[in-house]
Amino acid sequence: MGRAVRVAACALNQWALDFEGNLERISRSIDIARSRGARYRLGPELEICGYGCSDHYYESDTILHSFQVLAKLLESPVTQDIICDVGMPILHRNVRYNCRVIFLNKKILLIRPKISLANAGNYRELRWFTPWNKARHVEEYFLPRIIQEVTGQETVPFGDAVLATKDTCLGAEICEELWAPNSPHIEMGLDGVEIFTNSSGSHHVLRKAHTRVDLVNSATAKNGGIYILANQKGCDGDRLYYDGCAMISMNGETVAQGSQFSLDDVEVLVATLDLEDVRSYRAEISSRNLAASKVSPYPRVKVNFALSCSDDVAVPTCMPIQWRHHTPEEEISLGPACWLWDYLRRSKQAGFLLPLSGGIDSSATACIVYSMCHQVCLAVKNGNADVLADVRQVVNDETYVPEDPREFCKRVFTTCYMASENSSQDTCNRAKLLAEQIGSYHINLNIDAAVKAIVGIFSMVTGRTPRFSVYGGSNRENLALQNVQARIRMVLAYLFAQLTLWTRGMPGGLLVLGSANVDESLRGYLTKYDCSSADINPIGGISKADLKSFIQYCIENFQLTALRSIMSAPPTAELEPLVDGQVAQTDEADMGMTYAELSIYGKLRKIAKAGPYSMFCKLINMWKEICTPREVATKVKHFFRMYSVNRHKMTTLTPSYHAENYSPDDNRFDLRPFLYNTTWSWQFRCIDNQVKAL
């Protein structure tokens, strides 16, 4: 009868403009899907060129090379007898579209352009693409000669259509269309489409995975059907980490779940599903059937091919499973670690260098690198030949096999404690002990000679010597002396990153890691061009509160007991003189606000879209048990003054792993001025008037 369909969803670690590598990974995924009996294979969004091409989409070369890859796929024997659904940019009548190209046995069946483009947060698709606004409309697309020579076709259907095979009907969605309020799957389902596909380029954000899973399951809960979601994975060249999570759902329940974080470049999820389960599920939903009788039909492209076999009564089908979500602490341990590995191997560097201060932020960064080493060793143990080849390239040893994370960490990770006369012995000891426990190559150095030399030049030129405030200096002098220390640490970090391996008789250089958290960046509590300035920053999108929870997770899961004393110590920059050998400076006192308050300000400013007045109005209710309206007003004004005074620092912020939706990243996520009127006179006056009224 033909009822059991076998389908495949892929998660691929594609890389923007890496046409050679992208082709290899696509071909491998199709080969795996076919070898496991799948009759339909779905890949991620724009997988041929890689999702993150950005302004390279404007270049005709990007479309040319995408067609060249498509021609290779069409010609390949691995693509025979399986419907292949791949993503690439296409120019139709001089308009650029984000498309799915669906083909079978050297014939293109349909080119389906994206209808709803992602254009918020990190996404700028409307900059490069135009949405297809002709609902249920199909046009002829004239194929380039390079494709005509392979397919023998001159034109193919282009537009909003569905595929009618011999046994079922398939309709495509592309990423954002699942999230749109008028998702195409709604009316496609009413028109008899039984299998919905979604090719995504969806990135990781802490606590986001359940939203995607719920959307997929709800897509078929009300309307019945099979939903297949493929997603990109890995770092494809910028701040985002695409987190896989390929999945297959039927009638509102998950039947197959892919991994969210892994070092596998190619992951193929295959499931066998019974079409009769869809039909019987829909049969009893009378409201759906009434709506279906009034729906406008989709153009159908007939395909002389079946996703099932004629005699499949005894074929076992997949049963519903419970989705297993990671905790936020696990997400921090795995996501940034995988991102770092991609960045390391693709940048062709030999490892990382981290200025390790003995505080929570740099220690959390060190723990993420250690987690990366764990993931690498585990992948090699599980037989991942790609990871082993990358490891050998990184360490420049063709015979090396990583087995112990601490030993591998020693090869690829250098930590450096940069002491000054203002540093305490406690932080020095904490940094050293943590380095020993994770296995990093650790350096202790003192920057006092360099600080004195720089300040000495200033004194020689001006005849004035700045002093710390505890010795009678002004705030300007105090801050300048702190900044000199911080900036010298950056210079030394890059010097040691370039030459440490040289001194050890090893080839290559190191990537410098930054360790400023998202809250400090928002407040601007960092020195411009200090150790927050680095090559990349794995924690730049993570809050202090989440980092503390992650540290606790590392104590329990990695047995890093050195972290206990780091957790209990108050956060401090250690840039001002010690008092009786003890640290007198603390971060929260310097900032004039707590890290907990900063997280709230950040979420209200970005996620709730609150300016000073709206933030005040929300907080007088949120904090009514702990603050008077006047105290709330003072806090809000102080935050916005500090935020606006320091916003210019975001223009030079180190590229950071994007993990929070209140990130102040100025590159493309949080677009704001960096020269403000920091008095906020009108806004603050509105707050003052409201305080008086209250």
Automatic annotation (TrEMBL):
Keyword Ribonucleoprotein: no
Keywords: ATP-binding, Ligase, NAD, Nucleotide-binding
Known EC number: 6.3.5.1
Pathway given in the UniProt record: Cofactor biosynthesis; NAD(+) biosynthesis; NAD(+) from deamido-NAD(+) (L-Gln route): step 1/1
GO terms for cellular component: cytosol
Gene Ontology terms: biological process: 'de novo' NAD+ biosynthetic process from L-tryptophan
InterPro entries documented for this protein: C-N_Hydrolase, C-N_Hydrolase_sf, Gln-dep_NAD_synthase, NAD/GMP_synthase, NAD_synthase, Rossmann-like_a/b/a_fold
Domain of life, source organism: Eukaryota
Translocase in keyword set: no
Pfam families: CN_hydrolase (PF00795), NAD_synthase (PF02540)
Domain CN hydrolase: 5-275
Gene3D superfamilies reported for this sequence: Carbon-nitrogen hydrolase (3.60.110.10), HUPs (3.40.50.620)
One MF annotation (Gene Ontology) recorded for this entry: ATP binding
HAMAP family assigned: NadE_glutamine_dep (MF_02090)
Oligomer and partners: Homohexamer.
Protein family per UniProt: In the C-terminal section; belongs to the NAD synthetase family.
Name listed for the protein in its UniProt record: Glutamine-dependent NAD(+) synthetase
Gene name as annotated: Nadsyn1
